[in-house]
Amino acid sequence: MRNLLKSSFIVFILVFIIECAGINAAEPKKQPQQAAPAVAPALSDFHYTAENRRDPFEPVNLIKAKRSRESRLIKDKKGIVQYAGYELEELKLVGILRTDKRRLAMMEDMQGKGIIFKKDDYLNQNLWVVDVQDTKVIFGYKLKGEIRKIVVDIPKR
Question: What share of residues in the chain are helix, strand, coil (percent, to 5)?
Fold first, then answer.
């Protein structure tokens, strides 16, 4: 009896497998719909303007420097664009950087923005850096045709 049950179970499994295979074989395979052939867009269809976009090949730090310089340009009453610059009272000497060839003065404006000046850089039309030494910066100031020197030391802590 056991042999009969085993053999009938095996026959049942085989019939089931064959029927399942027949059901799958009877269903027609769906063929994918053929898409319309892709047409490459013509170059005349594209239009690019760089208006209000940055140049991707220009380094970001140069863009920021250029914007900060442009923000200090003002028009006077005659419509002439001039460099507004900084007054010495607006700046605080933070430190001096030394390289093998020159020294740079690190200064901070009233908003906390850092600015670096080297010898002969102008802060405004009448004020420029005469010399940067190890512990101080010497500025030249032109007042009514007369040139004066102002010495600013690094603040001690």
Answer: 25, 30, 45
* Segment 7-10 long-range contacts (CB within 8 Å, at least 24 positions apart): none
Sequence letter at residue 58 = E
Residue span of the structural domain in which 131 resides: 60-153
108 within 8 A of 89, measured Cβ to Cβ? no
Residue 5 lies in a domain: no
Q: What is the pLDDT of residues 99-132, one digit of tens each?
A: 888 999 999 988 888 888 889 888 887 888 999 9
Is 124 a member of any domain? yes
pTM above 0.85, yes or no: no
Whether pLDDT at 88 is above 60: yes
